[in-house]
Amino acid sequence: QSSRKARSMMRQAFTVLLRLLVILGLVFACFGPAYSHLLLKLMYGDTWSETTAPRVLAWYCTYILAMAVNGLCEAFVQGVATQEQLRTYNYWMVLFSV
């Protein structure tokens, strides 16, 4: 019974954190690309705002959301998996990295 309750609490905490992360990430993904040119113009003038830097910064705002979700999910798996599951997971991670 306590194991089931602990799993329920972990799942609930993960869900709350994931929703918070997605909401915050979507704010950056929605407004970051639109205002990246203005931000660079205000901070660095024409030196950087007239290059491809605003476009790169715009894509980076979206990329950060994907990496944050990946990081949270990977941390959750590392935290709740058994030793055998982690061994299998690490094997596949190394295999896919090559």
Question: Which terms summarize this structure?
Answer:
92% helix, 0% strand
Structure description:
It is a single chain. This protein has 98 residues and is mostly helical. Helices cover 92% and strands 0% of the residues. The chain has four helices and no strands. The protein has helices spanning 2-44, 46-49, 53-80, 83-97. 2% of the residues are buried.
How would you sum up this structure in a few lines?
This protein is mostly helical and 98 residues long. It has four helices and no strands. The termini are far apart.
What would the average pLDDT be, to the nearest integer? Answer: 92
Segments where pLDDT lies below 50 for 5+ residues? Answer: none
The secondary structure category is mainly alpha
What portion of residues belong to β-strands?
Answer: under 5%
- Report how far the terminal alpha carbons are from each other: 42 Å
| Count of DSSP-assigned helices | 4
Percent in helix: over 70%
Shape: elongated
Helix-strand topology string: HHHH
The tally of beta strands, per DSSP, is 0
Q: Radius of gyration, rounded?
A: 19 Å
Largest sheet: none
